[in-house]
Amino acid sequence: MSEKIALISLGCPKNLINSEQMLFLLAEAGYTLVPDPDGADVAVVNTCGFIDSAKSEAIDVILSLAALKEAGQLQRIVVCGCLSQRYRAELREELPEVDAIVGVGSFSEIVAAVRGALAGEKPELFGDINAPVDETGRAVSTGPGWAYVKIADGCDNRCAFCAIPSIRGRYRSRPMEAIVEECRSLAQSGVREVILVAQDITRYGTDLKPKNSLAALCRELVKIEGLEWLRLHYLYPDRFDDELIECIAAEPKIVKYLDIPLQHINDTILRRMNRRGTGAEIRTLLKKLRERIPSVVIRTSLITGLPGETLTEFEELCSWLREAKLERAGVFAFSPEEGTPAAEMTDRADEEEAQRRAQLVMDLQAEVMDDWCRAQLGKTLRVLVQGYDEEADLLWGRSWADSPEIDGRVLFDGEAEPGCFADIQINAVTEDGDLVGVLV
Q1: Quick one: which of 14, 110, 238, 422 has the most CB atoms within 10 Å?
Q2: What global pTM score does this model have?
């Protein structure tokens, strides 16, 4: 009987893809994959180490696994990903229960890590974080009917508040042929929506020889038979050119939902963040997008409480948000990340004030979202069916305006198969902001 392996994936979709690659490699090596670490031989946890809350979550998971190990219900613990890359020495010294540590440059070596852990060797595997992206198979764990596809790894943007470049390395695009082949294979397996992800997908291809572009990649992907939705995460504003805008506007398969991390609108704060571009350029871009893609839904991420943000800069942010009416937003209070320039800045609001400002922005954005939801009443939306909600006693899915796990849902009455599309006429909005309708 082969050893049983449980894998816990934390963090972002890009990390999830690495987890899926590790699942594939472990299954290929003959291990039995199980969903619960209780009773497993080895638990692999793929961590996030980006912000304090993610680090705390990862440590809590490791400690819970350590308790299982002490109780004799788990034999070995393998820690992978961003936390292990960033805090290798600390993990070794402060969590002796961990049996193997794997950095972000060594996901493809997970089988060696597991074998070493089982043999009592305490391996530490840390490959080159600037090496080309591994073209490893995946055991897709999302769906039904959708999957993430990572088109690049690493980042060259060097935002002052972000540690990703030091953890994940420089920006490396995957070859277009590899991405197209992966998406074709996914479509043949029943995937109808592909979500392109990278730290910055607008930079795609600029590091390749010959150079390439996101627009060129999208034009190839929309040709794939069976692929019906192509969703784009994350589009940095400074590289959003006219070619890309025209491509998105003209291609019916590219959903008119754009995730553009803007972070702020005040010029002083943008400079402190080491963001390229100005508030005026952001306003110009959004105006252009609204004009050329009239139905577009824009999602962004925002940071409150960055050093230098006084009430004046915060008021400018709020005033702009009332004017811009961005349909989706994630709001984060500034978290000083060690090793980043922003962590060395002293003139920042205290944590409680940063959280208060984040809550004010979320309240403001909730009004915009409520208005958008009410505007859908009476409309018929195409929905990718996801499953059944027992509490609501209704099926549910996602519209083109909803990305998985971060946006709302469409609940509906009728019969439809998960992983397929259905047309839903919207007739109500729940208190939580989900849409409710009936199958047309």
Answers
A1: 110
A2: 0.95
